[in-house]
Amino acid sequence: MPQSSRPLSPHLQIYKWQLTMTLSILHRATGVALAVGTILVVALLLALAAGPDAYASVRGFCGSPFGLFLLLGWSWSLCFHLFNGIRHLLWDAGWGFEIPRAYATGWSVVVLSFVLTALIWACVFARGGIA
Amino acid sequence: MTADLHNTDLQTPLKRVRGLGSAKSGTHHFIVQRVTAVALIPLVLWIIYLALALVHADYAHARALVHQPLNALLLIAFVIAVFWHAQLGVQVVIEDYVHTRWLEVTSQLAVKFFCVIGALASTLAIVRVVLG
């Protein structure tokens, strides 16, 4: 076979890391994380229906260091997936495909996701934290 | 079953797609994913508000919050939309990354069953709080 000096199609290892691809990967990752997080929603609702003891133990888990770590991750994931999901819906409507606009909306999603997460936790800790 | 769309034999395109199922539901997954996404925008904003109220509520107050008709209704709507949307999303992830057929089918079924049971269990729990 003749050797060609033409460049190969870019592989992930040498592909220049960009905001747009990062957000695309994060949208998937946060989506999967949130799907796992539904377990806590079900657990909390089942415990609420079951009685005070069950509810207290789920609340206790939420207030534990590991529980707080999960809640912090899930709350940011939810905010990010919400804002980036709106960005996706705008694309579905045909708006925002131009590269400068894709970057502007992308950075807006990043900033908004951290702002909303910070607001949520400010509300939690302003009134004494969890549990 | 994989259809080779680039074969160069003398079969007509119609002959090649026969038996592969109807093409009329091709956009169904895409559309339902978007419909549930649109529904979840207001529902998620509301659930954040409810969750913040629940964080600072004791057991009786938490039950009273979920007991309110509007809260119960929106909570059931949220739970159904969220499990539906999650199933559709995870389905695509599995389709993309799991290429061992038996593992793919098993995980797709497991995710579907988990989401249906999750939605039903949550709804039942909400109904128990409303009626209890």
Compact overview of the structure:
Chain A has 131 residues and is mostly helical. In chain A, 76% of the residues lie in helices and 0% in strands.
Task: Describe what you observe in this structure.
The complex is a heterodimer of chains A (131) and B (132). With 131 residues, chain A is mainly α. Chain A has one domain (19-126): Up-down Bundle (3 helical TM bundles of succinate and fumarate reductases), CATH 1.20.1300. Helix content of chain A is 76%, strand content 0%. In chain A, helix 1 (19-50) packs antiparallel against helix 2, helix 2 (52-63) crosses helix 3 (65-92) and helix 3 packs antiparallel against helix 4. The longest helix of chain A is centred in the N-terminal third of the chain and has 32 residues, at 19-50. Chain A is elongated and about 75 Å long. In chain A, 21% of the residues are buried. The model of chain A has no long low-confidence stretch (mean pLDDT 93). Chain B has 132 residues and is mainly alpha-helical. Chain B has one domain: Fumarate reductase/succinate dehydrogenase, transmembrane subunit (3 helical TM bundles of succinate and fumarate reductases, Up-down Bundle), CATH 1.20.1300. In chain B, helix 2 (28-55) packs across helix 4 (69-97). Chain B is elongated, with a radius of gyration of 21 Å. The mean pLDDT of chain B is 92. Chain A binds chain B through residues 28, 31-32, 34-35, 38-39, 41-42, 45-46, 48-49, 52, 55-56, 78, 82, 85-86, 88-89, 92, 120, 123-124, 127-128, 130, and chain B through 34, 37-38, 40-41, 44-45, 48, 52, 55-56, 59, 62-63, 66, 75, 79, 82-83, 86, 89-90, 93, 115, 118, 121-122, 124-126, 128-129, 132.
